[in-house]
Amino acid sequence: MTAALLEARDVSIHKGLRQLLRGVNLRIEAGDIWQLAGKNGVGKTSLLRSFARLARIEVYGDLSRCDDVLYIGHSAALKGSMSPRQNLKYHPSGLCNPDHEAIDEALASVGLSGYENALTARLSAGQKRRVALARLFLPSGRLWLLDEPFTALDVVGVEILEQRFKAHAESGGAVVFTSHQTADLGARLNVLDLEQFRGD
Prior knowledge:
Number of domains: 2
CATH superfamily of the largest domain: P-loop containing nucleotide triphosphate hydrolases
Mean pLDDT: 90
Largest sheet: 5 strands, parallel
CATH topology of the largest domain: Rossmann fold
Distance between the termini: 35 Å
Strand content: 25-35%
């Protein structure tokens, strides 16, 4: 059996006196795409952040993953006073130091040609989201952990992202994402309904 990029065994998450999730089991291998699904408040973001080792709450159980990880949270994590090009150059993941040509190609891939030097604060919510997701078109980790990546995207933006997920999986990567909407990812998509692991 090949080594998993991420494996959770009997993982439980507590927030104060409240148990959000209990008994979560999940194995992510190269080529996998997993959606964490469930109602608001069930613990999707908390679980994803625990996978990224960013959880500020109590996590119990056995959780292991590779170190080659890219995490993009629900917030776009962009500085409004900087341009899209600058935001991607100095992305907080720090996984790469791309040149202007690579950044401009990434922005073009998400439909933002011509916005490279615009003030990010003046972009629409959908455009800001595209800037953040352009990071997926630059060298990045094998395991992507993405919180609500489809938020604020139009139909074209959603299609671009779905195709990028498939390409990353086909190249030996893996994607874990939270979403309230159904993604058109074909047979590659696995859905983990967190309602079945809801805590007390």
